[in-house]
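Subject: mismatched residue count in predicted assembly?

I count 922 residues in my input, but I want to confirm that the predicted structure covers every chain. Input:
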Amino acid sequence: MTDHAIVDLARRLPQLRLLSEPGDLEHYGRDWTRRWTPAPRAIALPASSDEVQGIVRWANEHNVAIVPSGGRTGLSGGAVAANGELVLSLERMNRVLGFDAVDRTLTVQPGIALEAVHGAAREHGLLYPVDFAARGSCSIGGNIATNAGGIRVIRYGNTREWIAGLKVVAGNGELLDLNRGLIKNSSGYDLRQLMIGSEGTLGIVVEATLRLTDPPPTSQVMLLALPTMDALMDVFALFRSRLSLQAFEFFTDVALKHVLAHGAQRAIDGDHPYYVVTEFESPDEKTQDAALAAFEHGVEQGWISDGVLAQSDAQAAALWRLREGITESLAPHKPYKNDVSVRIGALPVFLHDIQTLLAREYPHIDVVWFGHIGDGNLHINVLKPESLSDADFIAQCEHVTKLLADTLHKHGGSISAEHGIGLVKRAYLESTRSPAEIALMRGIRQVFDPLGILNPGKLFA
Amino acid sequence: MTDHAIVDLARRLPQLRLLSEPGDLEHYGRDWTRRWTPAPRAIALPASSDEVQGIVRWANEHNVAIVPSGGRTGLSGGAVAANGELVLSLERMNRVLGFDAVDRTLTVQPGIALEAVHGAAREHGLLYPVDFAARGSCSIGGNIATNAGGIRVIRYGNTREWIAGLKVVAGNGELLDLNRGLIKNSSGYDLRQLMIGSEGTLGIVVEATLRLTDPPPTSQVMLLALPTMDALMDVFALFRSRLSLQAFEFFTDVALKHVLAHGAQRAIDGDHPYYVVTEFESPDEKTQDAALAAFEHGVEQGWISDGVLAQSDAQAAALWRLREGITESLAPHKPYKNDVSVRIGALPVFLHDIQTLLAREYPHIDVVWFGHIGDGNLHINVLKPESLSDADFIAQCEHVTKLLADTLHKHGGSISAEHGIGLVKRAYLESTRSPAEIALMRGIRQVFDPLGILNPGKLFA
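Triage response: the counts match. Full output below for your records.
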């Protein structure tokens, strides 16, 4: 079958790389969710903003849906193409375009991997501080599309805080040059901020100017074992009041079991229900003393059962692996993922509510908890029993997610802390955003993308 | 003449305080610009979100324009009511509603003064770090409407960074509860961010949850005299690389002349064309040594002519007064104000360009420069000669502003760094935002406020 629209696209943009082999369609049509069968029409791999703009204008004329595509490490189906869309992959637009030492900004193309951004900042003696386990595969464009968070949010905030400027091709085909690296710019609505977290439904980022900062002083990594969930908040408050925290991550014994089975090294003996990996700035011996004093106070109070302070970079990396290796260790069990948040102050009651909920609803199913306590962000991974079919398993999880969404609504939380809504959570959007907000969001989408060609079906049905 | 719409408003909201005496209309109908003759229809002083929502719904039914009103310290005419609008003053909604020690947030009503927010944070041992000279009169709602910046942006960023949640009555009458204090919330478009800096054209903030932080360690204040404009950037780079800067503010000899005539005390002898007030964290003697070493290096390089390090809180306050007293000292001269910004990296060339421009265009007029070099933000105050009429003076200044806007456009700058567009700068908006961006902004306004009842004529004509 000849695809006349694609023929026209190739005619208009003769340099544009286009792929349509079945293997390519499958590879570029899915993300890490693996729930939908990839079925894009074709894959376009533009090499410039001009080509991106040309594609968007073509799509408007032919009314073809576009799925913007980065590293496809997303967990909400935001980059899935299952309905004859054109996948617009930004993987060839992956260069560093410039560095400004006075402004301390790095200008990059959207397809660059987060890890490459880290490296480029380091070359100039500076830090791009957003970080998480998918750093080697995820792209900065995708980070912007979901306002990615990760393991340093407690110290540095989300991606939003680090975007000094964005060039964007809007859904209507216009090229926008938003904020241009200005620190102060009170000249109307900040469309840059609107673009961040919009999951490819308003425009396609073709260039980003990232703010960099000074690297932190030397830091130290500690693993703590905790006897109860209540102790989590006590230990967090204790450590936050005495140290300058870079990270404060928790996981459960069930998570530990999987990551150890996947090759990580046990660092604390005995059985403990909860663990924390924390990293804190440690410029001098005073901080190390403060950390040990905080640890001892926690032990005396009965909040901490055991602990290890890393004595070398290698040991620090080994402790971090216990937390960062969790996602990979669960992959073989086809986990169903929830990524939720509440205010930190609402965490204790919320944790109890969902502990009760999950124990009741998943009586014979392994549920792995981990997350970023200091951000109020909890990741829940439900592992598929071999006896259940994929469809039955997902149906059961979606039933529980509905209950979880109700609990989140009660606590003023969010059904998506950092993964985005995509396809996976759009049925639960009303737990987090009111009908009035959703109506405004739909109206805004209509303004940027009147024909709805960008990532249709994502975020809203 | 009976105003039937106002009669209906009073009937619907019998508790609502309404004013319509000539003195009230004048008082509430103008802001610090004083360029327009106040002519509102009436003044409403709601005491609750419900009353605000009732007013907005009434305004939609009667097609009455509303001017949201805080401290009216604005310098762009954003709170001017000169066309029969209803002024909706938030001054009675000025309470602290709550403090959360775990989340470290303060929830306030929009009419609270910035200084009262500082005080409330201090009571809990914490800091709300946005700060500027109008702190005693400006309201937090107005700060949010313009994304207010000020003197600590170099260290803490603009208002935008400190807003954890907003309750807003949108132009369509819906009450929105945006982000609810969450640190991580990737659930669609961040309407909170869109509201910040929208100058009362999308919605009226009825409650704000502000993020607080640890107070800084002890700081020190230094006044520097500089021989050339080029030295400004050198001294900034030098001090930024060696110290943790809280503020880095510059002003000229012309500004000094006015502030001294207004009662401030001279701190450095002799005539110097440029001055800097800088404040830096100084937790220990090491930092003080570093500051002195930086100073000496600057002197050796010929970048610094003289300097004073404050030896007491009183002396620090006296040095700060040299910078913070400028605006007040200029007021009797009816200054025409520009508030512009460029990337810091673009400052040196930009400063030379506009120095040439202003010297050429204002040959016989005092022009006072000051601003926030570390943010790329420059305030230009043109003083009205007594011989010129108000109208002729403003016409001349608007002609020069057009040329300044062209220069800003060339350097990728902004016609409004922190004051907003309002009425004063709307003719120059296209120097900063492209026609495509402005069209999107108009579209967004239409979504939030279909009848255009909120602050019509502000931001766009």
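Residues 390-411 of chain A form the longest helix (22 residues). Marking this ticket as 'not a bug'.
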